[in-house]
Amino acid sequence: MKLAIHHREKSFSKHWIDYCKKENIDYLLVNSYANDILEVIRDNGITHFMWHFSHESSRDLMIYPYLFSSLELMGVKTFPNFNSRWHFENKVAQKYLFESINAPMPKNYVFYDEDEAIRFLEKCDLPIVAKLKRGAASINVKLITNVDDGVKYIKKLFSDGIPSRGKALGNLDTKIRIAKRIKNFRQLFVRIVGFLKKNKKERLLSCPEKGYAYFQEFMPKNDFDTRIVVVVDKAFGFRRINRENDFRASGSGKFDFKEMDLKFVSLAFELHQKIGAQCLSFDFVYNKDKEPVVIEISYEYGLPFNYNCEGFWDENLNFFAENFIPQYYILENFIKE
């Protein structure tokens, strides 16, 4: 076994590298953007390749599908594997995935014709949630409450399109909350300038979303959603509290760690097994019957600030109150493949 890791700051790769050093595992740092990446992999006899590519990077989203597929054709094991990644950062793809495995979910509707989308909107029950394929932290998620606004939204999608990258001042309350954690003014200034440059670059690189309209049934009376992360045969989770006067929890920056409804944990294990993934986070809410439904999934996941995973559930829903570093467990199981 010979391992290659693409390293990126503030990603899983820091933990992977730490684990390799701790366990004396031989590894090679590689650059997934390099022209000769496949040659490097072949010449160094790499058997296992790991890259935590990001939903925030248009470059990552452009490269990873054909790089990973090419590596797998060469016989290289990959993290994330195909079943973990093909639906990544694509809510429409996840609609088809959920339907294929009969996952409990809100009703989802996708249209590739403008007139058909408008006819649907004129007859459907409002409010309804409108989403773009891309976007995290509730970026590109909005509640359509009347037909006029909905028609304008649809017409935009079938003309100029809608930028998939949020504006620099979007989710401003969350950005202010994060900024307050940085006590050093110089460090804060550098972070702000860096973010503004990155955001401008990403808005230039990302393509506008157009040519489709995607809607999801609104699930009222949910003051939070529940995120359950499954890594192989272990799971952990937390609740994300809705923003003030808003139906959206993602990106609020508000969390709690109260006792979880085990129905969410059980369903996460069930769906994870059906999908055949290595690692997936599941975002759940309740439907009108107080049963769990899955909203979105992702192989990567954000954690609360300074969050330490102090326990996990096994597949029998037994809870183990012990320190758990999920990135270590990803690597530990991956190199056994």
Task: Itemize the secondary structure elements and their pairings.
Layout: E1 3-6, H1 13-23, E2 27-30, H2 37-43, E3 48-51, H3 58-73, E4 77-79, H4 82-85, H5 91-100, E5 108-111, H6 114-123, E6 128-131, E7 141-144, H7 147-157, H8 172-180, H9 185-205, E8 213-217, E9 224-231, E10 234-241, E11 255-256, H10 262-275, E12 279-286, E13 292-298, E14 312-313, E15 319-320, H11 326-334
Helix pairs in contact: 1-11, 6-7
Task: Summarize, please.
The protein is an alpha+beta fold and 337 residues long. The chain has helices spanning 13-23, 37-43, 58-73, 82-85, 91-100, 114-123, 147-157, 172-180, 185-205, 262-275, 326-334; strands spanning 3-6, 27-30, 48-51, 77-79, 108-111, 128-131, 141-144, 213-217, 224-231, 234-241, 255-256, 279-286, 292-298, 312-313, 319-320.
Strand order of the largest sheet: 11-10-9-12-13
Strand content: 15-25%
**SS-derived structural category:** alpha+beta
CATH second-level architecture of the largest domain: 2-Layer Sandwich
Order of helices and strands: EHEHEHEHHEHEEHHHEEEEHEEEEH
By CATH's scheme, which homologous superfamily of the largest domain applies? ATP-grasp fold, B domain
Specify the biggest β-sheet. 5 strands, antiparallel
Task: Return the CATH class of the largest domain.
Answer: Alpha Beta
* Number of helical segments with 4 or more residues: 11
Number of β-strand runs: 15
Q: Sum up the overall morphology in one term.
A: globular
Distance between the terminal alpha carbons, to the nearest Å? 10 Å
What features would you highlight for this structure?
single chain; about 325 residues; alpha+beta; Rossmann fold; Dna Ligase, domain 1; 4 domains; 5-stranded antiparallel sheet; 4-stranded parallel sheet; 11 helices; 15 strands; about 35% helix
